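Kindly draft a polypeptide, keeping tokens residue-aligned:

***
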Amino acid sequence: MADINDQIEQFFEAYEQRFAEGLAGNAVAEETAKAFADFFVEASPVGISGGKNDQSFLDAVPKGYDFYRSIGITKMEIRQLDITELNELHYMVEVYWESFYEKDGVSDSIEFSVIYLLQHLNGTLKVFAYITGDEQAVLKERGLV
């Protein structure tokens, strides 16, 4: 299990780096798409939705980074990973993020977690589902949206 834990840690280090690149305005849609399964599911307070990893996903990725930049997000850093092996092919990873932002000349941060479900198949990790908290409520509370 130690080897797969190392792979999962590297997977999320690359995810964090792509986030930094995306926030900087660099093109990361294709690399981001490679981290996701052909079909994936999102669960949030809004409900449950599924999406294909297709051209519409590739088109949506830069818009997500544009949104975060527009509300003052400057950096996202992983603080902790909690990895749970579900079976030999599937893992649940709770990622504790810290999101840094600047609003009206004041710098602050928001801590939150996202639960990712990963499949390890043919030596490759892919996100096939993720579960988020109420991001919009926190952003409103902080006056970012």
